Structure formats: structure tokens, C-alpha cells
């Protein structure tokens, strides 16, 4: 970030595939992820990325609000289900 222009930083954040990065400008402008409706992207050989604000209810009945982007496991190998922890790479998941 040192020495990068504001536009370059915004572009990099908006390109983040997981949506884990975001920004808010001093004038209130938000990153694209925060401004969009709920969207689901299927990553090749990886997780489902749900972008937007969602309510997740666990098997124990507890709920949590997830904002921006959430990566859900598709391979079954995650130790943090229903969320992706990157184990699909070691498992050789394709899909």
C-alpha cells in the first residue's frame, strides 16, 4: 500500500476473490462487495463464495450474521464446516 494510489488500492480490494478485503472512503463510498446484492460464485476446484449479508444457522440452532463474503466448503474436507478452510487443495478436490 505504501506509495500506491487510492484507485490502485480500491481496484486491488475489489478484485479480492473471497471478499475478505473491503474499504470505506472518507466520503462514505463503500467497496463494491458492500454495495451489491447477495451473489454466489462457484470457484473452480474451490469453495462457494457468497457475497452479501446472510444469516447462517448452525446444526446447533445458533445463528450468526456474515457480511461481505463467506466461503462455504464444497469438498467436505474442511475442519471448519460449513466454512472453507482451504483443505480442498490438499484433498485434490476438483469440481
In terms of topology, how is this protein built?
Blueprint: H1 6-14, H2 32-35, E1 39-42, E2 48-51, E3 54-57, E4 63-66, E5 69-72, H3 87-91
Antiparallel strand pairs: 1-2, 2-5, 3-4
How far is the N terminus from the C terminus? 35 Å
Largest sheet: 3 strands, antiparallel
What form results from the Cα inertia axes? globular
Average pLDDT over all residues: 85
Reading the helices and strands in chain order gives: HHEEEEEH
Please count the beta strands (DSSP E, at least 2 residues each). 5
Class from helix and strand fractions = alpha+beta
Poorly predicted tracts of residues: none
What proportion of the residues form beta strands (DSSP E)? Answer: 15-25%
Give the radius of gyration. Answer: 15 Å
Overall tally of structural domains: 1
Number of helices: 3
Please estimate the helix content: 10-25%
Provide a quick synopsis of the model.
The protein has 95 residues and is α+β, with helices and mostly antiparallel strands.
